[in-house]
Amino acid sequence: GTLATLVEDNRTRELDGEEDGDYQKYKGLLSLNLGWKMLSAGVQLEYLYYSDPELAIPGDLDRVRDGFSLRKYWLDYVSDRFKGRLGTFFTSFGYGMTLYVQKNEVVGLDEPIHGIDLDGELGPFEFEALGGNVTDPILEDAFNRQFEDTIWGARALVNLPKETYLSASYVEAELESLFPAQDKDQVDVWSVGAGGYELGGVLDLHGEWAQIDKVERGRAEDGYGGYLSAAASFGLVTILGEYKDYWNFRYRYNTPPTGGRTVENYDHNDVKGGRIQVEGEVMATDTLFFVGVGDFDTHRKSTSLGGADGDQQFEWYCGVEQTL
Fold first, then answer.
1. For residue 54, which phi and psi values (nearest 5 degrees)?
2. CA–CA separation, 75 vs 116, rounded Å?
3. H or E stretch covering 52
């Protein structure tokens, strides 16, 4: 097992700039693991303490909890062709078009699915099926109440000759409404995809199309998402091209590819366009050079209310990354 602790001394300020006070935060995580043959089990216990919870910094996703809690637990079975988990887990389907629940240390997001996850291989076929409950700590932090959602899903992939593949996935979700005392929102999303690895020795391709149906507060909406990527490597130089077309495609537990820089936010509800990025590496100095250009727009037309002015986002960027 392992024990990790975090102690913080923080100072907050009121909106007028006056000092509001100091508070301390203590966080302890105790992880225990056991293994026997093809079985393993484990738990992660958490203890959280705030000297003054009311002063906790907005955006600290831990502040929705207090005291002792069972954060993670699992019972695993792993064989050559099959693995299953009963407990907590992170997962995503393909490129995240239909499902993406992963840990994000940058924002402190560490909320897994609580349920069952089954993965297997049978010849050229790969499959996964899952179901369980999950919460969104970002919404809990913003609304100061619990959001417990239910998701079920499955994915399948078949490997074809010449390093190509076909894929499909489906997810059904029941989501706590943002409005109290309302029925749960309903989401159904499916996708089909195809691609290949090292085609011609240099090219990786992936294309995916998804359809989403949502019912929020009794109102039905639908949307779609299309994504295409092509990456080619020539020695130490890599060229990446991406195109996306998303309309009303965002829901709480999917994260479609941005088709742009990871340090920028992109709207998944109404955007289309693509980018090209070129990277070159200097092995002797562990230096990476990159340059990219992207052009994105919405689906508005000249006949739309207010016209289409101001919807386009054209960007270019370049940079250097040095490993020390």
1. -70, -20
2. 10
3. none
SS3 107: coil
How many CB atoms sit inside 10 A of residue 237's CB?
A: 12
pTM for the whole thing?
0.86
Where is 192: in which H helix or E strand? strand 185-199
CA atoms within 13 A on the CB side of 39: 4
Instruction: Reduce the DSSP state of residue 87 to 3 states and report it.
Output: strand
CA 186, 153, 252, 220 torsion-angle sign: negative
Residue 308 has pLDDT above 70, yes or no: no
| Residue 137: C-alpha distances to residues 51, 143, 302 (Å) | 21, 10, 40
Phi, psi of 92 (to 5 degrees): -150, 155
Query: pLDDT of 136-182, one tens digit each?
Result: 888 877 787 788 899 999 999 999 999 999 999 999 999 998 888 88
* Segment 213-233, tens digit of pLDDT: 999 877 888 999 999 999 999
Q: Which of 46, 50, 39 is nearest to 7 (CA)?
A: 50
Locus of tokens 């996708």: 191
In the structure encoding, which two tokens stand for residue 311, read together?
């919807």
SS3 assignment, position 94: coil
Provide the token pair at 252.
């709480």
**CA–CA distance, 174 with 185 (Å, rounded to integer):** 6
Over range 242-252, report the average pLDDT: 92
> Which pLDDT tens digit goes with each residue over 136-149?
888 877 787 788 89
